[in-house]
Amino acid sequence: MFAIPCGIAALVLLIIGGVFTLIAQADYSGHTGRAEAVVSTVEVERDTVGSGDDGQGSDDVDITVYVDYSAEGVEYSDVKLNGLNPDDHAEGERLTVAYDPADPGDPVTVESTEEGAFDVFLWVGVGMLAAGGLAGLVGLVLVVVAARG
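Above: the chain sequence. Below: its structure as tokens.
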């Protein structure tokens, strides 16, 4: 009876843990270039998920930030800002961005280049993978016990 919920929990934890572990592999150490940028556009997309009896749902908000800057003698306009917390910036705000001198058209937030910036994702991902493995093992044991019994 509890084998199916354990299996579903295991699957969900393993998928999310895998995603977090992949995110932890992000490496922006090659983004050694720096440029002063201005946030040119902030796009906010809202998607209302579900609705209760009161007509209220929860908003899933996706924020994309675009910047203008000059790097390696080239002007870049409306380029998507990536890395850690790019959505913390408002339109018109000035900030420093990091870029790879070999590919200056792909800016990231400066904090993304710091050593260990993505370590929290690794620890959360490994924890979720372990929990998913444990839930899967419990589900398997329950199936075996039910089959014998």
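The chain has a mean pLDDT of 87.
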